[in-house]
Amino acid sequence: MIAKFGLILFCLLAGIYFSRSNKIPNGSHKIVNAWVINLALPAVAIKYLPHIHLGQHLLLPAIAPIIVFAGGIIFVSLFLRRQSVDKATLAGMMLMAGLGNTGFVGLPLVAAYFGKENLGTAVILDQSTVLLFSTVGAYIAISASGKGKVTASALLLKLVRFPPLVASLLSISLLRIIDISEIQPLVNDIAATTAPLALFSIGLQLKFNDIRTQIGQASPVLVYKLILAPALCTIVALLFNFKGIHTQISIFQMSMPSLLSAAVIANEYDLNPKLINLIAASSIVLGLITSCFWYFVGRFAI
Fold first, then answer.
1. d(Cα 175, Cα 192) in Å, to the nearest integer?
2. pTM of the model
């Protein structure tokens, strides 16, 4: 466990160091992200999902991101209803409150806390988040910006072109009956790059500009994402008697910081980028601490 946390800290600090030096060009994180999204995350899905036994125990991992996303939209709407907040800022805050970084941050932390053998459950949670982000999240961002029109065909095309989702669907269908043992060592090696490269990329993107002027507005989103969201998932688990390691991982994944991809979309569609970038950076730093608390909540409450 200590060695795994050492790896997490080292990769984050390495990313922060290189982002503040002139040793790599600006935007280098996009190259790292391309590897992680197009190769590493699909390899993780191919490595673990074919061996997962589908059943009721995976119900909470599948629906937890939906519950948290809906809760985030309601929470932000209610919290800001008496404040004069523009539509773009409201949409950006909804995305950051409702969508968690279940991939780039969640997968390395699940591996550290629960072991790599349980990454399959984490991948299911992550793909549920991807579906939400690529459909409802995209609709919220585009609608609030007024820069384009959302069509069902465009959203569907975006989904079928997303490699981790395609790999996940293949892994729970065709790869259960097709033998890929000959290339399994290659898949394993590529999957092993997910955690260090994802964390390095996060370090490259961490920025804390305008923290004094924006922290008040960022606080409610941080409170929901890091405290109320996993608490909501815990309550659902207790009410419906969900048990076991899959439930614990669901609670843990719902305590992850805000989704970096949501911040990218918020920047692209001008949804108050300064505030959104502050939320993204702050939630990652604070989330490394609060996720530890929710790990123990899951272990002892479920």
1. 20
2. 0.82
Listed residue (227, 246, 237) closest to 289, CA to CA: 227
- The token pair at 259 is 């989704």
Which residues are within 8 A (CB) of 283 and not within 5 positions of it... i.e. 6 or more apart? 96, 101, 221, 222, 225, 226, 257, 258
Task: Give the whole-angstrom CA distance, residue 271 versus residue 280.
Answer: 13
**Helix, strand, coil fractions of the chain, as percent rounded to 5:** 75, 0, 20
pLDDT tens profile 232-241? 999 999 999 9
d(CA 279, CA 258): 7
Six token digits for residue 291:
């996720």
Helices (runs of H) and strands (runs of E) counted in the chain? 17, 0
Distance from C-alpha of 8 to C-alpha of 15, rounded to nearest angstrom? 11
Q: Which token pair is 99?
A: 């969508």
Residue type at 234?
T
Structure tokens at 141: 């961002």
Does the structure show a pLDDT above 80 at 217?
Answer: yes
Q: What is the pLDDT of residues 25-37, one digit of tens each?
A: 888 888 988 898 8
Q: What is the mean pLDDT of residues 202-224?
A: 82
- Residue 150 has a pLDDT of 67
The 10 Å Cβ neighbour count of residue 25 is: 7
